Amino acid sequence: MPKRTDLFESDPDDTREAIMKATYDALSKHGYADLTIQRIGDEFDKSKSLLYHHYDSKDALLVDFLGFMLERMEGTIPLEEAAAADDRLRVGFDHVFAEILDGDREQFNRAMTELRAQSAHDDSFREQFTRNDRYFESRVQDIIEEGIQQGIFREVDAEQVASMLVTIIQGATFQATTSTEPDLDAVRTELDAYIESRLLDDD
Amino acid sequence: MPKRTDLFESDPDDTREAIMKATYDALSKHGYADLTIQRIGDEFDKSKSLLYHHYDSKDALLVDFLGFMLERMEGTIPLEEAAAADDRLRVGFDHVFAEILDGDREQFNRAMTELRAQSAHDDSFREQFTRNDRYFESRVQDIIEEGIQQGIFREVDAEQVASMLVTIIQGATFQATTSTEPDLDAVRTELDAYIESRLLDDD
Hints:
Chains A, B: One of its GO terms (molecular function) is DNA-binding transcription factor activity. The structure is a homodimer. Chain A is mainly α. Helix content of chain A is about 70%, strand content about 0%. The two termini of chain A are about 35 Å apart.
């Protein structure tokens, strides 16, 4: 998830964007369980009746919020900044781990874990999170396939390795938000060792 | 998490055990969000007043339930069944993935994800889940250290690799319970590839 300042203008004109920003702020402040439309309204500069006009329920608003976050995220992860596939993977994972560990985003990250756990019993949440997963997985898969073509990576099953990498990111996010002593520095270091031993071609 | 039949006697005498069994059944049936002491009582053969006598709140009961599950789990994961460290890891992961993918446990697994997500804003849940994590991590670390001593594994940082393996299991569990299309067969296969490329000594 990108930083708040990368996601929103400081004073958005567009109503939907203003609602999304208020939702982000209310989620960061109250978490999912204590979130109400009223509390989103408290973060909202325009008329609160607009919220009720646009959304039937808190959960309908949140599903739209998840879709919005996905749109905005596309492009903010710097997977393209390096030429060689192994460097692109490392730059991308550095970015993701920095966001997971960013103290300023702690409350928001915890709220996202709560939201995702709602997927356990809510199909529309589950579908939206699955779309997010598939988006990241296909981006990672593209990079691995490129690495194979560049002769940097071994001829692995790129889809299978991408599934594993997305699973690791999810496990790290889950741990960061639900453990008293997440050791994510160890996981980040081991991720490099995994990429090196499993992907890098020795020749 | 072990199977229900491995965890509980069919008709437990002990009051705490009977409460734990009722909690397991109520969680499987209703999930966390819709769980009430009343609903746990509905699964309970003895006097419901016992529940209120033993626990102040639903969450106090659930923290005790998590501790109980950890006690019972110790020993049910068949990490000891093989002699060679790499086989012991594989047998253990086969067992864990079979539990994650077990259709009969789907509702219970989802409830556990919801419970774990509560840790995002509840310290006593977070501490109990962290204890569970540390228990598994130390078991896995022991096996890796043994593998190094047996000359089967490379001289890796066993704690770091154990952190990664626990992170992968958590990510897989999270995905199985919150995604519409978790590809855990791919993750299980890739886990073997990771162990082979990262841990197995070529000599």
